[in-house]
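Just curious: can you write whichever protein you like plus the matching structure tokens?

***
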Amino acid sequence: MDNNKITEQVMSQIDTQHIQMRPKWYFILGSLLISLSLACIVICGLFIFSDVFFHIRSHGPFGYLQFGSNGIQPFLQTFPVVPLFIGIFLIVFGSILLIRFTKAYHYSMRLIISILVIIFIIVGFTADYFGLNEFIAQNNSINQIYTPFVSDSWIVGEITAVNNNNHWMDIRTPYGDDVQIVWDQQTLLPVGSNFKPTDRVRIIGDNIDGIIHADGITIGGMGWRNSFPTLPQPRRMFFVPPPIDN
């Protein structure tokens, strides 16, 4: 069928079925909406993946797995599961928009998803590296989106005072919560452990009368910055007893 016959058929169909061509502004508006949607996805992806990197960097959730089955709950509480699923949704949704409404339909879904994953990882890591999350945390009205550094069964912090012989230490969380820790011969400890001030530790155990009785302690793997803001007093979760004399 030559081009003339195709043109005649199309024009005949337009006349008989009263088909109207969409105005130019319709396509311009559609392009703007798609562009805005993709820009919003990229911006949201920046914050989401930055939050994922922040939680992994500051909490070191994989370190809890060293405690075996006792570390599974703290791991699930500190690993950024929800942000990660939101990030995956944004990647898939953004890929569908690109393939459905842009010239990206020439490429496979796998390639588009791979490109978006790389973009989100780069922008998320860069934003976290330059302190985006610590900057957001300065605003007390929105910093509740971050997982706290202390719970009823686990805590992370930096040692401020320690007595290895008497098995106690004082730690301070990145939010400024001061908590006392004690341990005994049954506590799981790093091989050859000799705790010292400024060590960053993660601890699982029970809160008894304001003191954490540790079931396990590990060192390192947590990279929060010292510029992390101190939250107002109502956030404090433990009563801290007076220091124990050496």
